[in-house]
Task: inverse folding
């Protein structure tokens, strides 16, 4: 039997996706399937997040990126590799010019294509005509790899066959993250807290993520001032980088109880989760919810229509909370949690339990089953 090839096309290879691709490569290889991941160097705007990397040459294929219309359209010269593959999986994003080409090539039976993504722009900040195009094209594929059950339902509701949809349960490498957390013992926690000027008894809120406008860092700083007034000794730790990192820098320079430590990855990032009590993200919530839960940190956010599908993993008042988009309301809920140790302990336990339901192994298993089903479907 001839070896089959699956080609996944990504605009950029992200740090958090590396473990997924590593494991997917191994699992597909055991099924006699070769994985190729095509990706490009981040553009100047994307590079500000400082979270891209190069993939191993065993499966990674880096190509040039040609951006147009102010980074709103992208072309990657990999048409030949895609056509040669038995299945090409693309991000369901309107910016990818290749996607439109694949739709045409699929009509002539020259490519078998699958989408991987959100189904629509859940942030509601895209143009109406682009969303219309995305909705029309979502049916022009052979398979769908949906991030969550809500995405799968949206795809099916818009006319895609339910027997050609795989719910991957989008995740990250939680097991490695938990090991890194476990290696950070009480002595090291106290040392890190001490280096930041945080006492052992102080309440700590953590933000970790890309620092762009949809994360609402201005809101977070404003709410933190209120929380600090209500909770003596409260500290806020900000981890990440991006276009809005100046907000974090200025807040840390102004208030000694706010600490900006820049971008961190792996064990260095886990250290800050280990010394925190809760996770604060009033803006867009994505995969960070799973890392927070893995560390036993309940997540506090707001009800703005910006969240990625992974917001479904949050259960209000159980493993976190969702408040109105008002700094005072947000501060009240967070402060109340700090003032009720029993409730906080219960929420932390629920967060850890929630993290057990999602993980990289499960995601890869789902993904492989979807690939096999697609390749074997007539």
Result:
């Amino acid at each position: 039997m001839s070896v089959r090839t699956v080609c996944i096309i990504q605009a950029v290879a992200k740090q958090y996706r590396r473990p997924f691709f590593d494991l997917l490569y191994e699992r597909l290889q055991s099924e006699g399937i070769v994985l190729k991941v095509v990706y490009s160097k981040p553009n100047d705007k994307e590079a500000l997040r400082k979270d891209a990397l190069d993939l191993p040459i065993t499966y990674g294929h880096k190509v040039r990126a040609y951006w147009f219309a102010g980074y709103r359209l992208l072309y990657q010269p990999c048409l030949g590799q895609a056509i040669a593959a038995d299945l090409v999986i693309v991000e369901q994003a309107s910016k990818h010019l290749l996607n439109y080409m694949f739709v045409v090539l699929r009509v002539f039976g020259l490519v078998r294509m699958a989408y991987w993504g959100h189904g629509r722009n859940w942030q509601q900040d895209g143009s109406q005509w682009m969303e219309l195009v995305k909705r029309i094209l979502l049916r022009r594929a052979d398979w769908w790899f949906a991030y969550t059950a809500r995405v799968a339902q949206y795809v099916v509701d818009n006319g895609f066959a339910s027997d050609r949809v795989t719910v991957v349960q989008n995740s990250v490498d939680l097991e490695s993250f938990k090991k890194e957390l476990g290696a950070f013992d009480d002595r090291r926690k106290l040392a890190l807290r001490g280096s930041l000027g945080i006492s052992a008894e102080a309440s700590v809120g953590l933000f970790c993520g890309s620092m762009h406008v949809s994360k609402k860092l201005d809101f977070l700083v404003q709410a933190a001032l209120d929380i600090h007034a209500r909770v003596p000794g409260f500290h806020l730790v900000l981890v990440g980088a991006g276009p809005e990192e100046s907000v974090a820098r200025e807040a840390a320079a102004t208030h000694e109880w706010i600490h900006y430590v820049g971008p961190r990855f792996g064990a260095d990032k886990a250290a800050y989760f280990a010394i925190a009590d809760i996770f604060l993200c009033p803006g867009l919530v994505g995969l960070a919810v799973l890392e927070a839960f893995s560390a036993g940190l309940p997540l506090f956010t707001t009800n703005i229509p910006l969240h990625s599908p992974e917001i479904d993993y949050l259960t209000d008042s159980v493993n976190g909370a969702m408040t109105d988009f008002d700094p005072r309301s947000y501060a009240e809920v967070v402060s109340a949690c700090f003032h009720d140790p029993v409730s906080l302990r219960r929420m932390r336990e629920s967060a850890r339990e929630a993290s057990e339901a999602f993980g990289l192994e499960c995601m890869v298993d789902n993904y492989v089953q979807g690939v096999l089903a697609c390749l074997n479907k007539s």
